[in-house]
Amino acid sequence: MTLRSRIVGMLGRLPRRTAAPEVQRSVPTRTRDDVVLLSDVWLPRPLDSSSALVLIRTPYGRDGMDLLARLLAERGHPVVVQSCRGTFGSGGQFEPFGHELEDGADTLAWLADQPWADRPISVLGASYFGHTAYSVIAADPGRVSSAAAAVTATDMHAAAVYPDGVFAPETALMWIAGLITQELPPFQRWHTIRRIRRRMPAALDAAPAEADGVLLDGKTYAPYRDWVRYDDPRDPWWDPLRRGEIRAAMPPSTLVAGWYDPFVVGQLADVEAIASAGRDVRLVVGPWTHGSPAIATTVIREGLHLLAGAGRGGATVWDEGLSRWVELDAWPPPAIVRSLVLDVDAALRLEPRGEVDLVWQVDPADSPPAAGGRGLNPDFAGRRRQHARERRDDVKVFTTHVLRHPLTIAGRASLRIVTDDVEAHAQDWFVRLCDVSPRGVSRNVSDGFVRAAAGETAVTVSLAPAAFTFRPGHRVRVQIAGTGHPFHPRPVRPEHRRLLSTVAARSVLDLPVVVDGWGAAGATVTRRIP
């Protein structure tokens, strides 16, 4: 045990240590196409024949997994950490998503010949190496006994590359920035990252087909160009990114998500699909962005429950409004739809008092700032104050009266927007749900985006899932903008948006309300994650 593993074990409330691990570095595995993949093998001493083996396949380096592997091995589980092909000493060329199914299958075949691997196999992964974990399951569902996955989704195309059916430059550019710098020497890496950070705003402003060149100072990244080029979701080129078929055959699993992570929509859809298929699945959602440190300790703790055969279903979600954890029987909990009409005086009301007709300009050279949300960039992801957005003329806000009683939502809110054919081409709509404090400070809760076809006069924007209690004295607010930049490309020309809410057709915010709050829903509310 190291001092670090001891501290993390205590802070993460992990089970007590039962073994002293030994590690074998750079153990080779040969694939069907004669590529050698390198693995670090962590073997606990003594080695319990009943303990499951944990397989982690990652493109981000084995050294970065040392603490995770040690914590698992100290609790009796052999751990194999393998570098994906083309990364950190493994042979071949790294082609994102291209070889994970076959390489996962070949790794399982190799493990079948190892005397210390004659045991159940569990997979663990987050983000891209959540995809590699799902690929191992897809390769041989019956061989995997459990799965712990975080901030990832079975369909990486829909969850990350083309969320809402529209390319996501912020996610793509942030990811390639990490990929191309991760194996550089420390000083060169630091210097390169600084230059990339300076160029990131300009890259996000550029057309998607040119953005990698802006970010990389004239160089290009071939996989990124392919992501932009293959813009038809039906193209079989995207098949390697999709592992949705495993949801009906998932082993007992725990999925860990963050309310401010780009994958949360796809990940919670996975939970619902897995549960609907009758498979055992547990969900934990915290107030986290993609890189929040608490995700790692949560995955380890939940994964150890699974490995011990003590997996549990249900969902544990963070209610940011109450600053409490909520334990639910399932996600989403029962809720009713409460509709609020967009009304005169920038109000959200149960009963309208007038009509709304707003027209504004969308300027591609001057988009509203991100100010939080579900992004990878730590400069603006997460829950943030909204004054920089809400003071702009191109962001329209509608707000309720001061609440007298708590209002708890759980699930996906949506906004039905009535418009007209102002533009002869597709129109982007970005909607954000906010909580306004008694002092007037507005902070984001959830958001959603849609690209409406030309001529559509009624548009529905589904927001990302949320579990949030608006407390007495607070107000509910919705923001409406005509661009989803920087999460989606900015418009290529000046455009107009028109928002209508009239007697003939109302624009309406639908909230999934938990009637009488968590207590009435049979939920347990606690300060500490169960």
Written overview of the protein:
The chain is built from 13 helices and 24 strands. It has about 525 residues and is of the alpha+beta class. It has 3 domains: about 5-160 and about 235-315, Rossmann fold (3-Layer(aba) Sandwich), CATH 3.40.50; about 170-230; about 335-520, Jelly Rolls (Sandwich), CATH 2.60.120.260. An 11-stranded mixed beta sheet has the order 1-2-4-3-5-6-7-8-9-10-24, with helices on both faces. A 5-stranded antiparallel beta sheet has the order 12-11-23-16-19, with no helix packed on it. The protein has a 4-stranded antiparallel beta sheet with strand order 14-21-17-18. About 50% of the residues are buried. The model has no long low-confidence stretch (mean pLDDT about 95).
Short description:
By secondary structure, this protein is of the alpha+beta class. The chain is built from 13 helices and 24 strands. The two termini are 26 Å apart.
What is the mean predicted local confidence, pLDDT?
94
Compute the number of structural domains.
3
Q: What is the CATH topology descriptor of the largest domain?
A: Rossmann fold
CATH homologous superfamily placement of the largest domain: Alpha/Beta hydrolase fold, catalytic domain
Structural class: alpha+beta
Helix share, percent: 10-25%
Number of helices: 13
Classified by CATH, the class of the largest domain is Alpha Beta
Q: What's the count of strands?
A: 24
Q: Unreliable stretches, pLDDT < 50, 5 or more residues? A: none
Output the strand order for the largest sheet.
1-2-4-3-5-6-7-8-9-10-24
